[in-house]
Amino acid sequence: MPNKIFGYLGAILIVALLISCAPAPAIAPTPTKVAPTPTPTPKAPKVGGVLSVAQKAEAPGLDPHKEPAETTARLTEQIYSTLVKLNPNMQVVPDLASSWETPDPKTYIFHLRKGVKFHNGRELTADDVKYSIERILDKKTGAMAASYFVAIDKIETPDPYTVKFLLKNPFAPFLTNLASFYAVIVPKEIVEASGDLKKVAVGTGPFKLAERVPDNVTKLERNKDYFIAGQPYLDGLNFFVMKDEAAVIAALRAKQIDFATLSAGSARLLKGEKDITVVSSPGLARYNLGMNNSKPPFNDVRVRQAISYAVDRQKIIDTVFWGEAVLTGPIVPALGDWAIPVSTYPSYTPNVTKAKELLAQAGYPQGFKTTIKASTQTQAEIAQVIQSQLRVVGVEALGI
Q: Which residue from 85, 163, 353, 393 has the fewest beta carbons nearer than 10 Å?
């Protein structure tokens, strides 16, 4: 049976292409600074209206702790809140916690906002935070974010508005991990009454679940009791399942939807069109080619290096993403260098001769057969490019 390519190889950071029809009811315009004219004062956000968003696929479920799908996260991040969150500059700022302190590297003390209510009307307390993080850590949950909190030794709740995390050891990403939309705070009674949160959603976020029609639309309505005064600006959000990008483009042109994320190729079709705005912005999505390092031939570092030399990442960017992506090294930054500059660990430069030499040294002078897997259309397009590149050095990657 052929081996499977499965693991990590390098990364391409994707530039998200956001498409919207004018007018966009909830977004305040960003002022343009033109020297020497003073920067104009931003206009107040427009209040009211329902924003219609195109989703590429149906969310498989609504449980924010269990479902890793992006389509689920886009819904649940509107319904739930986290202790802290990331602002547009990727800085950790308050959310449910109004403040926090770290008296030592292994202790984090959070002070919760008072009067925050779940959508069922009950006030959120420190016990809800403790329950939510412990639910994530419970192996029975199978939570996406369980590995984010392995450093936790104990969670204490000295009073209803204070949560104290005691760590086994200093853990640098702990604060950032608490901002993950996989680490939202949920009400215990709703989980226990329903068994899980796959079909129900009761959070403290800006929007409440109003209606869900599978494979069609999920409707969210404004949470009038949201803890940030005056927000949200919209009356609601409608997420329509639209799997075909041609249909999304047609719906944007007809103003049946207001917002969508499209591939670079599709986005180019809309640039310059009246009443449609195309925004290219750095995103956090990334694509990796991986290998199962525990099984031959990928347990040989020379084979892994050979494949790294065989793959031309820039060609993938140019052909699959139409240039709308950024080549990264093995250390993948968010929107900038978090800890180690990317230039410290640059990506491999394509070198077919070197790849063949390494394969020969590893005992595969004629190459070998393997399988490659892809779960989305974009991944399949990437895999097809990689297939052709690996074939040049004798590696047949089947499966696409």
A: 353
Which residues does residue 50 pair with via DSSP β-bridges, in sequence order? 236
- Beta carbons within 8 Å of 254's beta carbon, 6+ residues apart: none
Q: Which residue, among 232, 231, 235, has the nearest Cα to 210 in the 3D structure?
A: 235
Q: What is the pLDDT of residue 331?
A: 58
Question: Which DSSP category does 21 fall into?
Answer: E
Strands (E), 292-333: 325-327
* 3-state SS, residue 387: helix
What is the enclosing helix (H) or strand (E) of 64?
A: none
Give tens-digit pLDDT for 193-209: 999 999 999 999 999 99
What does pTM read for this prediction? 0.78
The beta-strand segments (E) located in the chain are: 3-5, 11-21, 50-55, 84-86, 92-94, 97-104, 107-112, 152-159, 162-167, 207-213, 217-222, 236-241, 259-261, 276-288, 325-327, 368-372, 395-398
Helix, strand, coil shares, percent, the chain, to 5:
25, 25, 50
Q: What CA–CA distance (Å, rounded) separates 320 from 16?
A: 13
Determine contact, residues 171/117, Cβ cutoff 8 Å: no
Question: Among 249, 248, 118, which residue's Cα sits nearest to residue 186?
Answer: 118
pLDDT digits (tens, 9 = 90+) for 38-60: 455 667 788 899 999 999 889 99
Q: How far is 96 from 284, CA to CA, in rounded Å?
A: 23
- Tens digits of per-residue pLDDT, 225-248? 999 999 999 999 999 999 998 999
Q: Which residue has the higher pLDDT, 215 or 281?
A: 215
CA distances from 17 to 86, 252, 272, 318 (A): 20, 14, 14, 15
DSSP designation for 95: S
- Alpha helices, H only, 99-196: 126-137, 174-177, 188-194
Neighbours of 75 (CB within 10 A): 25
